[in-house]
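Reviewers of the previous submission asked for a worked example of the structure-prediction workflow described in the proposal, so we include one complete record here. The input consisted solely of the amino acid sequence. No template or homolog information was supplied to the procedure at any stage.
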Amino acid sequence: MGNQPSSEKPPIKEKRKPLSGWFVTREEPDKDYLPDLKSQWAHMDSTERVKFVIGAIVGAMLFIGALILVYWLLSAMIG
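From that input alone, the workflow returned the following structure tokens.
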């Protein structure tokens, strides 16, 4: 029951990036994303593709509408 040295290496501590590094550095691209997206798109039939595109358009319109609403509220509060 002696102290045997562990064969596992201690985890390597990653150096913490500064806050400014979040805005300047780029993340490593996910190599599995694009092939997976293409395979999912290939398995969709035409009605599913139309629903997907319409959903993306509606989502973009909601997002832009929310931005306009916030701008309108802020401008009404200021003056």
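The helical segments are 19-24, 33-43, 46-78. We consider this example representative of the routine output the project will generate in years two and three.
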